[in-house]
Amino acid sequence: MGQSNQSEIDKKIKSIRPEVIRESDTSVRPDGNNVDIDREMSLLAENALEYNLYISLLSKKVEGLLSVINEGRR
After folding, report:
1. Dihedral sign for Cα atoms in the order 64, 65, 69, 74
2. CA 40, CA 48: separation in Å to the nearest integer?
3. Sign of the alpha-carbon torsion through 40, 44, 46, 47
4. Which of 3, 7, 38, 73 is deepest in the core (most CB within 10 A)?
5. What is the mean pLDDT of residues 8-15?
6. Are 38 and 27 in contact (CB under 8 A)?
7. 3-class secondary structure, 11
């Protein structure tokens, strides 16, 4: 990777800023916590499914590229 490419990547990484999102549409318990564990688990499952899908697609893409590189031989 060239120096200019690495410099651009470094700039993009440094520009990323975390963001805290406070949801006000959920009920707050007496302890001040408004986390809905069922919703969080649902979002976690959705994220895991998307991750597995993207990893599978990426794996197939790399497999295809390796097949081309090896001219169909293993």
Report:
1. negative
2. 12
3. positive
4. 7
5. 85
6. no
7. helix
- CB-CB contact of 68 with 62 (8 Å): no
Q: What is the C-alpha separation between 35 and 32, in angstroms, rounded?
A: 9
pTM of the model: 0.56
Element (DSSP H or E) covering residue 60: helix 37-69
The rounded distance, in Å, linking the Cα atoms of 10 and 6 is 6
Distances (CA, A) of 6 to 1, 13, 14, 56: 7, 10, 12, 28
Q: Which pLDDT score, from 0 to 100, does residue 2 have? A: 60
